[in-house]
Design goal:
The protein is an alpha/beta fold. Helices cover 38% and strands 16% of the residues.
């Protein structure tokens, strides 16, 4: 159970459950993470831009698990403040932040424009820092907190576009299609994780990153076909894509008491993809 060991037991004798904020919680890895944490006893605020998937996540775990949906944009400073205020108003504390929201905007390399670059960096990097900054005063006061930044194996590795069939066209107007902002944002997120981990360690807060490898989620449907799945599975030592809940369980470890001496690490969950 993900419970607060310092909380005073209530009338039932049960200690108060920890509170988690999960961004990008309506689908894919975010939904799986929220489900796993809620099933383990946490109370979760799931955040995303679309209301319907968030309510589906909320309904996916039977009571007494608690998943509260909140439609909000992590790119917005006002919405980031609203996310924190909503969690505190609903649950009275914030123990866990999972920065999972992210976007990808591939385009021809020589035509990759500033608007696209800024959009990706804003969601994938800027929002992670400023949302962490927004929850840190509460975590500092509690002398407890867990922050997990969801990065990617492509924050550390280059992309072999030939494995993706026609997804990244090799020669279009403006050169080969690439995703430089995504790779840059995820690489920077890893170093942001290290820097934050050092800064907040005296406050009893840990900050870690998790880098997923190949996972089939709602976001990848219609993008990866059977050929791409076969190519990527062949390049994974375990010979398959990951299941979203495998990320959820890894995050559950990072936010647990068992990981109290783990901070500043990048936990790679990729079936061995990055070992080649």
């Amino acid at each position: 159970m993900i419970e607060d060991p310092t909380a005073t037991p209530g009338a039932t004798g049960q200690r108060e459950s920890r509170v988690a904020i999960v961004t990008g919680g309506g689908t894919g890895l975010g939904r799986a993470t929220a489900e796993v944490l809620a099933e383990a006893g946490a109370r979760c605020l799931v955040v995303g831009r679309r209301s319907k998937p968030l309510h589906e996540t909320s309904a996916s775990v039977p009571r007494p698990a608690t998943i509260l949906p909140l439609q909000a944009d992590v790119d917005s400073p006002a919405d980031r403040r609203r996310i924190v205020d909503t969690a505190l108003d609903a649950f009275g504390r914030i123990d866990i932040l999972v920065n999972n929201a992210g976007i990808s905007r591939p385009a021809p390399l020589l035509a990759y424009d500033l608007e696209r670059w800024r959009a990706v960096l804003t969601t994938n990097l800027e929002s992670c820092f400023f949302l962490a900054q927004a929850v840190l005063p509460t975590m500092k006061e509690q002398h407890f907190g867990r922050i997990v930044n969801v990065a990617s194996v492509y924050g550390s590795l280059g992309l072999n576009a030939s494995l993706y069939g026609g997804l990244f066209r090799p020669d279009v107007g403006g050169g080969p299609e690439r995703n430089p902002a995504y790779h840059s944002s995820k690489g920077a997120l890893l170093n942001l994780t290290r820097d934050l981990a050092i800064a907040v360690a005296p406050w009893g807060i840990t900050v870690n990153a998790l880098s997923p490898g190949m996972f089939l989620t709602e976001q990848s449907e219609g993008i990866v076909n059977d050929e791409v799945i076969a190519n990527l599975s062949r390049m994974t030592p375990m010979g398959r894509f990951g299941e979203p809940r495998e990320v959820g369980h890894a995050i559950k470890f990072l936010v647990s008491d068992e990981a109290s001496f783990v901070t500043g690490v990048n936990l790679i969950v990729d079936g061995g993809w990055s070992l080649w």
